[in-house]
Design brief:
Blueprint lengths: L5 H15 L8 E20 L3 E7 L3 E6 L6 E20 L8 E8 L5 E2 L5 E5 L1
Antiparallel strand pairs: 1-4, 1-5, 1-7, 2-4, 3-4, 5-6
């Protein structure tokens, strides 16, 4: 049995390096967003990111979103859940390899439409 040559070690190291550089899935798909921190009845979000196509509510959450005319990579999104609680939604994107969108909570309300501090909202994005 012969010992592996230096070329073999270099080839294996190169293959491992290339595999480690994979940035994850690419192509169209959806990111899942969650707004937690209070029993929200609704929130208005500003969502900034290139390649965003649409928004969909998950569970009891209804989602309504549109790009701004003056900034097509910035969207206003309204999430509503009449029962209140955690708001869950999907962001349909052109490429799952994109950077995470930047999300800012502009307005938050409870189920009686009373204002809640936007600081109470925590938004997370999962791939």
């Amino acid at each position: 049995m012969s010992r592996p040559t230096t070329r073999w070690y270099v080839a294996v190291a190169l293959a491992l390096t290339v595999a480690a550089c994979d940035s994850g899935p690419k192509g169209p798909g959806s990111l899942t967003g969650t707004v937690t921190g209070a029993p929200f009845g609704g929130v208005v979000l500003s969502v900034d990111g290139a390649g965003i196509e649409a928004f969909d509510g998950l569970g009891n959450t209804r989602a309504y979103g549109a790009p701004l005319l003056s900034a097509p990579d910035r969207h206003r999104v309204v999430l509503v859940d009449p029962a209140g609680g955690t708001l869950r939604f999907e962001i349909r994107v052109q490429d799952l390899g994109m950077e995470d969108p930047v999300i800012t909570v502009l307005v938050a309300t409870d189920t009686d439409n009373a204002m809640i501090s936007t600081g109470a909202a925590v938004v997370t994005i999962e791939r």
